[in-house]
What does this fold into?
Amino acid sequence: MFLLAAFVALVSGCGGGERPPEESALRPAVRGVDCPLGFTVEVELEAWQERLESSAEAEGYRLVLGELGFEPLPDRTLEEPEPEQGAMTLVSAEVTDLRRGGGAAADRLVTARFRNAAGAESLRALVLRPLPDREGSYCSLGDHLSHERESGEEPCIEEHPGPARSLSVENLLAPDRDSIVARDAGGWCGSGRRRGDRFSTSFWGVELGRLVKYFEAVTSEAWYESPDPPSEIRRGEIELSESWPRTITYTEVVECRSPDEEAMPDDGCRPFERTETHRYVDGRYVELDDPRSTAEGRGRVETQEVPR
Amino acid sequence: MRERETLEKLIDEGTVAETLRKDSSARHAIAALQTVMHWLGFDRQLRWAEFGADGGYGPATVAAVAEFARRNGSTAKGERVTSVLASKIVARYDSLEELKQLAEDVADDRVEGRYRVGSGDRIRVAALQTLLNGLGFGAELNWAKWGADGGYGRSTRAAVAAFAVDEGLGGDGTTLTLPLGQRIVAELGPFYGDNWHDLEHEAAPAPGSLTVKSVAGRGTRQYLDVSDGFRRKRFQKFRRGLFTMGDQKPLTFVQSHGDALREIGVTQSELNVMLAVAENEGNLDAVNTWDNAFLSFGLFQWTAGQDSARGELPALLARIKHEDRDLFDKYCGQHGLDVVDLTPADWMTSKTGPLTGRFSLRGTTIKSPTDKAQLREAAWAFYFWRAGQDSAVQAMEIKHAVGRLEQFYSSDRYKVGDHLVSDLITSEYGVGLILDNHVNRPAYVRQCLAKAITRAGLPDPSGWGTEEERKLIAAYLDIRVTHGRSPMTDAEKRARVTKKYLDNGTISDRRGSFERS
It folds into this structure.
């Protein structure tokens, strides 16, 4: 068993303010010149990963997660009839390289996925940037990719055996620069009448030393009152252009289902289709209709009513 | 059809004569015989409407068997079934659907386009081949080699031509003409009972078994008509299953069965709360087998649980089983459905009662999604719908719904900060709102109340009066609209429904007005 303890140092800060202690007693709490917007940590990631995998209970997870500044897992034991059903267990812990382009050392995407017997999930995910000339030292660029899905918040229409949030890599800005794609699957499928699906996709990347979300859109959404099927289904398709940085084209379609197909929908659903285009400008994606877009001129946003 | 298999098994075992006879006690086998005879059209002799498949070999069964024997060239009196007669019964049954198909096509004058050389309708051509073989044209069909292969080729043409000659009709056999089709039906029909050919006749199934019939609706709508011989229900198909909205309104039930509900321990105050929330909930006989919850039923659309998780529907059935075993057996036990793995483990003595559990089917626990997919079968939609028609089950649904409060209302495990929910919310109005919230987003009640305490600036409930509770509820209602990743949809609309019952005096928002059983 790997026993080499990872050492997480609170590196003395230079110009960065400490986080208030109430935010997290375990968080690496110092910013440095190399890490002006994040928090500096020193950790041997392989050892950290093994230590997390060898932890078995909430307190163990809390301590190991805290080493990287992760929020502790919520206590779900109170939500379930049997406390053990609510206890979270580690499903996987992974460290993935994210290429930064231009020959820079890769960032590290660190993820830890937890699940309980009732189906609740917690994803802890952050991006660490290696500090130059300091092996084992990283700047934590943000854990905004972390995600929670409570028991019952699963999709209820589409079969989706995958996790609540899956992370993958996409070359959005340049062939040698990785961005992160987060695909979320949620909804509600517990007892009670109001149920549904909500699938969304978001693109993330590191800009000026900070993890930012470039774009987010719903790819499928439908809600209904069980047992009656949904009357409105929203679908979204995301297309990426071939050229760099890639332009994102998002097409949203709303389909209506009537209780009586020969009649108009009775609950205000109106079918439509629209397209919007987003381009990467100055470190972020902006809709081409946005006046902050490039000098090349206003882009094209198509909104089209679709007759029944 | 399992009844046919029962007869075939008796034939194979050589036990027909000793089993299928007058005054035999082999009720299961006799019921199988009666069901098959019913399908063959001998309802009148069986007095089917009166007895169904009752498993008793009495005068009606004797009459039916005797009539079958007479129509099939036997002198048997019907007091027992010989192996030869049983084989004839099975053979007639085996070609019944083919005969019905041809008779339907004859009635619709659709014979000549479908039964001819080169026809691509292999099912119909196979049916014709089966019928011609039954009429003695196996040699022409080269039956031993080809059987009913559905190809209208040289052998089928020869058989049709030979049949035409026998009937004194012309033709080279390339097409089954309408007169030839009529003759086949006329030749074979007399071997069956009076009802077989009545295409409009909706055969009543044997009690204990179901008939399921697909029905096309307008547009792309598809329905399934399911009947147990006593009740028929039309379910709409959707995706992987069925659904019905049901028509048993909880509001109507609570209003008209107050006495019965009080008898099973529901207080008037709890009834008031149920009246206020019922309009937001499902009908007592609503069923859904199409979504990822596999099977949802009743007022709160309790589910079998998504994926491999436990569900709340088994808990409802556990309550019914615990409190009224006969009622449980009537709708579940007799079909092999039971409940297991209930939580909490000590639910029998726990204040909460059963909260979640699993189904078992004929002794096997249903846990995996693959196993749970069985619950999408039409039979379960029907059995649950039937249960939802029963006022005793409806009363249990109301009681179980009220019992949900035990999960969070005064539970030490569901505290909001240092306070029980029952310290904070004590009015009928407030309880109605949080019960509705808990059904739809159970994890959010505590979180929303915690935020509401902060927003209302009311940290200590010990000295609260009605005004303070109203203030808390106002803050809570505002928060729950947007709280959480999947906010309680239509929260405002649902709150308006509950408020309506406050305004009309059904429920009170006076602090302390909620009285529990």
In short: The radius of gyration of chain A is 22 Å. Helices of chain A lie at 45-54, 58-67, 83-86. The interface with chain B takes residues 78-82, 85, 117-119, 148-159, 161, 186-196, 198, 223, 225-229, 260-262 of chain A (CB under 8 Å). Chain A has two domains: 1-149, 152-308.
